[in-house]
Amino acid sequence: MHVRDEDAVRHVTFDRPDSKNALTADVARELAGVLEELDPDSLDAVVITGTGDAFSAGGDIQAMAEREESAREAHDRVRATLGRVAEAVLTAPLPVVAKVNGDAVGAGLSLVAAADFAYAAPDARFGASFINVGLVPDLGGTVTLPRLVGLRTAKELAFTGELIDAERAAALDLINEVAPDGELEAAVDDLLETLAARPTENLALAKEAIHENLGRSIDDGLRREAHFQTLAYDTDAHREGVEAFLEGRRPDFD
Length: 254
Hints:
Layout: E1 2-6, E2 9-14, H1 25-36, E3 45-50, E4 54-56, H2 61-66, H3 71-80, H4 82-91, E5 96-100, E6 103-105, H5 107-114, E7 117-120, E8 125-127, H6 141-149, H7 151-160, E9 164-165, H8 166-171, E10 177-178, H9 184-196, H10 200-213, H11 218-233, H12 236-247
Parallel strand pairs: 2-3, 3-5, 4-6, 5-7, 6-8, 7-10
Antiparallel strand pairs: 1-2, 8-9
GO molecular function, one term: lyase activity
Organism: Halorubrum glutamatedens
Keywords: Lyase
């Protein structure tokens, strides 16, 4: 896995093309660590992508075949690897963007679902293929998929393990956009430019508020919303935004 910071963006690239960027336990731990150490004072966003013709094929099947562990050991490993990645993505203080250069399958699909934004190449395919090897979705898939695509479609994906194309993934809100052929990089760059012009601290507050309110009652949700809005009112970005509006100029959130 390659990690580089450039123009206030952390780029994370899976680099196991021979295995279609399958996620081993070590890769999952490394990815989680990279996401857990994000500094919103120096970064605006994170982009995750893959090398070759796949985003990620999910879990490493060869490693599964060689693994010998008790049920308790399996539980602890899943929670400390793929579960840790899901938590790191969902709680990251920066927008996380999945740049889906190719197939996103199994845990690869779950990673796309956990991201804040997902843009895909036209030939990318998506599948919750866990059932094909007798497993259930992990890396947060049972949490995020129903919220993104609805209960029936989440069950369809999880129960059949069949692949869907990028166009259907976009229609289901699994991804934001299918980029035209050869324009995935440009589409993500346009998004990053937009995000860079927004106040990072306030984006983090909005993300946390949205995630916390999933599944809450209306009354409880509105109380939490007021809490986060109160925090936002007390930021430099809010003051700059108001002043810029009154002065008829674009806000400068840097």
